[in-house]
Amino acid sequence: METNQTEESRFLDLTSCQLRDLAEIDLSENLEEIDLTANRLSNLDERISRLSHLRKLSLRQNLIDDQAVEPLSHWNEISGLEELVLRDNKLKNIPDMSNFKGLLLFDVSFNEITSLNGLSKVSPTLKELYVSKNEVLKIEELGHFRSLEILELGSNRLKIMENLETLTNLQELWLGRNRIKAINLCGLKCIKKLSLQSNRLTSMLGLQECVALEELYLSHNGIQNMEGLSTLQNLRVLDVSSNKLSSINDIDNLNNLEDLWLNDNQIESLEGMKEAVVGSREKLTTIYLERNPCAKSPNYVATIKMIFPNIQQIDSEIIM
């Protein structure tokens, strides 16, 4: 029983309680984590400012605006906070986070933020930054985040990939649903996951030095040629579906490819497929080619099975 009581005093989960305030809630001084997801909170309870052991605070899906979040900037007793989630609220600006010297995760996605101004005050210890589904126009104020491993800026209004060169430890970069026309990774070579889905790309060039890349998502663009991929020897997942491809190129020596998404393109024939994917014939387990002209050819499934002896899925069909 003592263990359970201790656990309850350290972790408080009030998700989906539809609370408008915390007046009736006991806040133990030993609390390390508070999850207030999916409530109706429009202000922060001042008692939170005295929880010196607090490390994780989630205010996701509430009614918090810029004024409501302002007190955080001078709540010195919770300066040891490591994770702060303000996702899905009513913020219009990046709040002042200078008080938190050891912040590791910061999430302000699904708000109404138009600029990344203010990120320069966020601790350089940050490892994960989420600013998706806002109205951000420019990538900026990221230069000091040399420990950053995950950057999520999807569903904004970005046109240019820029100001990324100092993020030398970045492992994942998510930029889907923007207005980006060209790939520019600013010399970064350690990225393992990259998403540029639903942008305005017409070329794949710009990836050649990303030799650590394991997952690449480029669907829903205007890409006409597969190119600049031959150096990506660690690539396991390649999604170039919903583009304007008419042939499969530049992946013949990718020996680690497991998933290949080519559906919704203009690939006419399966002829030459074996040579085009020779490096991954044994490794590939999933391929999507549906809604290409070649998917209507006689013996389509049988031909794919013959090319890839270890295939487990062709389009939506699981191979037994």
TrEMBL record:
The keyword Repeat applies. This is Protein phosphatase 1 regulatory subunit 7. One of its GO terms (cellular component) is cytoplasm. It comes from Rhynchospora tenuis. Transmembrane segments: none annotated. Keywords: Leucine-rich repeat, Repeat. PROSITE patterns: LRR (PS51450). The keyword Repeat applies. Gene3D superfamilies: Ribonuclease Inhibitor. It holds the Pfam family LRR_4. It comes from the Eukaryota.
